[in-house]
Design a protein that fits this description.
4-stranded parallel beta sheet, binds iron/sulfur cluster, 35% helix, 6 helices, alpha/beta, globular, 8 strands, two-stranded antiparallel sheet
Length: 167
């Protein structure tokens, strides 16, 4: 059975920076019942505490962070790039271990955002971009979807399992 990586906070785990969760029901509950879900909070896996000060990707450019050309910082300027990269690598290792090809990640997060993230100015301004984990997984060929795109993820899963059955 094809497994799916899901941001831990979407499953009700209180791992967010503010110590809260943001549980998402629907197809995630169905996949949980089917035993498909592998969950991880990349920021906690990278060694950050709960709760923790919010951080943003400078310029919203996660690819530049992965290349060491940009930083993830807290509002006071503390550089937490290493923890974010460690968390992204832990997520990738989990995907490789479970042969995961699809991930559902929390939109807007500096780790998990799929389509938009804060712009790095702490002005609550969202711009087009990805979180560090989302970008690393995408770089390695994993299809990443936000919790707002579960219909697309379901389509991708059906297509993947149809192809696997045909082989
Ligand atoms: Fe952890 Fe990602 Fe959820 Fe943030 S969005 S709390 S990094 S799982």
């Amino acid at each position: 059975m094809q497994k799916i990586l899901v941001s831990a906070c979407l499953l009700g785990e209180k791992v967010r920076y503010d110590g809260e969760a943001c549980r998402q029901g629907g197809v995630l509950e169905q996949w949980q019942r089917e035993g498909r879900i592998v969950s991880l909070c990349p920021e906690v896996a990278g060694g950050l505490p709960i709760p923790r000060p919010p951080a943003e990707v400078r310029g919203g450019n996660a690819e530049a962070v992965l290349r060491g050309q940009q930083h993830v910082e807290r509002e006071n300027g503390d550089d937490v790039s290493d923890a974010f990269i460690d968390g992204a690598e832990a997520a990738l290792a989990l995907c490789i271990r479970h042969k995961i090809q699809i991930a559902i990640l929390k939109e807007g997060s500096p780790s998990c955002g799929v389509n938009r993230v804060n712009d790095g100015t702490f002005a609550k301004k969202k711009i087009r971009g990805m979180g560090v984990t989302a970008r690393l997984l995408q770089r390695h060929g994993i299809a990443v979807f936000s919790e707002l795109q579960t219909a697309l993820a379901l389509q991708a899963l059906t297509g993947l399992e149809d192809r696997m059955q045909a082989e």
